[in-house]
Amino acid sequence: MTPHQLRLNLSFNQSKKEYEMHDATETIRRERVEQINTNPGEREVLEEQHGQVWDTDAVCKEFEVLGFAAPLVVVRRRSDGKKGSLMFQHHPRYYFNWQEYNNE
Question: Which has the closest alpha carbon to 95: 62, 83, 79, 1?
């Protein structure tokens, strides 16, 4: 499983009378959030490591945000409708590492 594949499962807890979410990616996502945000990169460094980098305004113009689970955001590219994911850091807020979903 890669960090770009969000796997969420819902189950109904009869005793609590509520749904519970089970996220198979939670541990790896928490580790990545800590790694990314403990030493956040400046835009130039992120561009060297991951290629194109977007700020929040640019992401909103180029993509439709479908959902997120830090440090990932699932998006649909407006220009061609392709789905994929981006990673993001909190401060400064930059999005990077576009990964297109091949089966979408």
Answer: 62
CB atoms within 10 A of CB 89: 20
The domain locations on the chain are: 8-100
User: What is the signed CA dihedral for 70, 71, 72, 78, rounded to 10 degrees?
Assistant: 100
d(CA 51, CA 32): 19
Q: Tens-digit pLDDT profile for the chain (104 aa)?
A: 344 444 556 677 788 877 776 778 888 888 989 988 888 889 999 999 999 999 999 999 999 999 989 999 999 999 999 999 999 999 999 999 999 998 75
Which residue is associated with the tokens 């407006």? 78
Q: β-strands 94-100, 83-89: how paired?
A: antiparallel
